[in-house]
Structure formats: structure tokens, C-alpha cells
Amino acid sequence: MKPTTRTDSDHVDHTSDRDCVIAGGGPAGMVLGYLLARAGLRVTVLEKHADFFRDFRGDTIHPSTITLLGELGLRERFLRLPLNRLETMDAVIDGLRMTMVDFRTLPAPDRFLVLAPQWDFLNFLAEEAAVLPNFELRLCTEATGLVVEQGRVRGLRATTTTADDPATDTDPATSTSTDIEIRATLTVAADGRTSALRDAAGLIPDESGVPIDVLWFSLPKPADPPPPTLAYLSPRGMVLTIDRGDRYQSGMVIRKGGAEQLRAEGLPSLRQRIVDAAPVLRPVVDTLTGWDQVKLLSVQLNRLDRWYRPGFMAIGDAAHAMSPMFGVGVNYAIQDAVALSNAIAGHLAAGDAPSGVLAAVQRRRELPVRIMQRIQRAGHRVISRTTTGAHIAPRWVIRLIRLASPVIRPLAARFIGIGLRPEHVTTPQREA
Ligand SMILES: Cc1cc2nc3c(=O)[nH]c(=O)nc-3n(C[C@H](O)[C@H](O)[C@H](O)COP(=O)(O)OP(=O)(O)OC[C@H]3O[C@@H](n4cnc5c(N)ncnc54)[C@H](O)[C@@H]3O)c2cc1C
Questions:
Q1: Is 26 in the pocket of ligand 1 (CB under 6 A)?
Q2: Cα 91 from Cα 232, distance rounded (Å)
Q3: What does the pLDDT look like over 270-299, one tens digit per residue?
Q4: N or C: which end of the chain has fewer CB within 10 A?
Q5: Ligand 1 pocket mutation, candidates 57, 138, 256, 295, criterion most atoms within 8 A of CB
Q6: Structural domain of residue 166, as residue ranges?
Q7: The FAD-binding domain covers which part of the protein (predicted)?
Q8: pLDDT in tens, 92-122
């Protein structure tokens, strides 16, 4: 670790008051920040990294989110980015290809899912938010604690890091850290599943046992690629192949805690497992030449019993870590942001963040989250069979599912693409 020069820890730079301060520049934090600033409120979003460029994060933008972008007047600009549109989702189960989801059955115009690297989506939001006069994004700024006075959260503490030599960004041999304090009517933890602010607020999530983890890696597409396929499942394993233009963002589902054993078996064994599960990757799997190309992502599923305290609320993965199952986590995080913004903007304008309103937001969002997490848990049980050499279901069941797929497709499109209780933007747009 490179040395960091700390300023005198007694020195805290007190910044001006904000209506809302948000820890975390992920999908939840950026959408909430945009919506509140668009309503004329003074918002600061803190992101601990220097940019949004982190790989292996949720890449799926679902029809419900595209509809929300339309409500904000951002849809057309967003869709002009270089994105992949998916109208259907195929899976290959025990060698049988089936189309399980058909977004073309959804109401027009948002009849497709977009695969966009998350950094493109977040950069897009950051650029759109930057023109709003009351929006402030502070990169390289890590929320470290809460300011609590008389039982009410009044803001947060953070450490902001600046490079001594700007040409070397924030990863220089030396950098300077400054402790800051930002006071706000509402403090929001949107800092993801390892949320520091949630901990600081004394909120502890209930964990659901998860039997799987995912190894992520990127592979070039073979010269003659098959139709877009989300996953290959068989007793030989499960491999995800998310389309990213000329490459696949690929994931191999492994048993929870099994990564060390795979490492010990060596890279040739991993390559063989990948090919066994998804033979279509045979021509490209040799591009995986080092473990530095493979990232372990520990799958988590949890939920806070209580998402708020006076002056404070957790949203997105900070309130309920979602599994990658069905790729809905980004969209659920965004729906939380919209629900909170709709409910709280008027109160923030009046200088208040009533706990009753925060409780109502939790009640509104908790039901869809609970149901989706229950379904994700059931899904984990099924796909974890691929890590034990078992069939995910008897062959006749798979054939039956294939036969029933014309009925399943529109239902799955609605469930995955729009979800339960989709939010719509009712937060007003105001000039600052
Ligand atoms: C392996 C895997 C694959 C997934 N694939 C998909 C998928 O394809 N589609 C999908 O929809 N979902 C997917 N998910 C789930 C999805 O990534 C999350 O549900 C979603 O990103 C949650 O958004 P968020 O804004 O709540 O949190 P995050 O996306 O985690 O964002 C939190 C942000 O806060 C920042 N931060 C953290 N701590 C601090 C701090 N103290 N101060 C300041 N900033 C901080 C982080 O750097 C980060 O930018 C996947 C999850 C996993 C584990």
C-alpha cells in the first residue's frame, strides 16, 4: 500500500449544509442525487473511488429503468450510447436451447433490455447531473461515519483524498487526505453491500445463506458466435455469457467458498470446467492465461429489518444486497431511489425528513424486495445443483419447461423486465 499523508486529524473541514448527502455513487446514489437536484434541492454525492470504472458490476438496464429514463427526458440520449439491446433471453439447459424471456411482449416502447457497462451508465448520469446547479459529486471521498446529535443523524464524516501531483490522479506515491464533515437534513447510505454508514447507524442486515459464488472473467466471442445466450447450465457447471459487443462478460457459478480449491487445481482445470459447461467457449478459453484475469465475487443476499433512523436512510444494496440472479439488483436499487425521492423531496424543500415518510418508503419497497429475494433464494437452490454434478431438474421437466416456454416468456419478461410494483417519477422538476 502506498503511503498517504494525513492532515492533522483534528482538522475537519466543515462544509455548508445540504438538503441531502448521499454516500455512494452507484446506481442508487446517482439516481437519487440526480432526482433531488432536478427538484432544486442541494445534494452532495460522495464516491470513494476516483471514477466509475470498476468491472464486474451489474450490467443490465431493464425495461423499467429505461421507462424511468424516459420519464426524466433522458431515454433517447441514453440509448444513443454504444449499448447492446436484448429482446429475448436464451438459456441452454442440458444442451437444449430455450428462449425463457421475451421482452417484445411488453408494452411499447421499452420492449428490450440494455446491456451497458455500469461505468457507462454512471458516467452518463454524472454528466446529466453535472448541469444541475445544486448537484455536487465528490469523487475520492469516502464516508467514514455519521454526525449524530440528540438521537438524530445530521450529516456524515468523510475523508477526501487528493493527489499531490494532479497528473498522477489519486494513486500517486503520496496523496493528501482531509477529513470533512457534511451536514444535511437527510443522510443516505447508498454505499452498497459493505455499507460503512449502515454499520455506523447500528443497522445490521439479516443474512440469507447463499450456496454459490461467481468467478468473473472476460472472454472474446468465438468467430462464429451462437445467438445471445445468458447462461449454459448442465451437471458439468453453469457459465454466464453476457454480451459486451465483441466479448463476453463471463461468470462461472461455483459452490460457496470453493474458489480456493479451484485455484489449487490450477488454471487448466478451470478452463476445462468452463468448456465442459459451455462447449461454445472452447475456441476462446485459452485467452484466460492468469488468475489475475479471474475475479471472485462473493454472492450475498441480505436485508435490513429497519432501513432508517431519524435523519437517515439506507437504500439499494446497503439496505438489501441482491444476488446476481435475474440481474435485477441495479434496477431494484434505482427503484428505491425513485421511491425515496418521490416521497421526500417536498419535505426536504421544507427543511425536514420525517421518520414517518422514511418508514413509508421502506414499507413500499420492502415487499417487492422480499418477494424477489425469496425467488432468488429458490433459484440459488436450483443452480447450485450445477456445482455438485447434478441435473438442475429431470430431463422430462426440462422438456416440459421448453414446451411451456411460450407461456413462460411473457410472464418472465414482465417479472424480470418490469418487476413488482414498478416506480414512476413523481418528484417535481424545479429550477434552482
Ligand atoms: C457477481 C454479481 C453480479 C451482479 N450482476 C448484476 C447484473 O447483471 N444486473 C444487476 O442488475 N445487478 C447485478 N448484481 C447486483 C448489483 O450489482 C447490485 O444490486 C447494485 O449494484 C446495487 O446498487 P447500489 O447503488 O445499491 O450499490 P453499488 O452498486 O454497490 O454502489 C455503491 C457505491 O458506493 C461506493 N462506496 C462504497 N462505500 C463507500 C463509502 N464509504 N463512501 C463513499 N462511497 C462508497 C462504491 O464504490 C460504489 O460505487 C450483481 C451482483 C453481484 C455480486
A1: yes
A2: 6
A3: 999 999 999 999 999 999 999 999 999 899
A4: N
A5: 57
A6: 14-81+116-207+301-387
A7: 19-367
A8: 998 889 998 999 999 999 999 998 888 999 9
